[in-house]
Amino acid sequence: MTNEVMSDDDLQRIEREAAVYRRLRDHLAGRGDVQNIDLMNLAGFCRNCLANWYRDAAVETGAEMTKDEAREIVYGMPYDVWRETNQREVDAASLKAFERNRPTE
Question: Is the dihedral of CA 8, 9, 14, 16 positive or negative?
Answer without folding.
Answer: positive
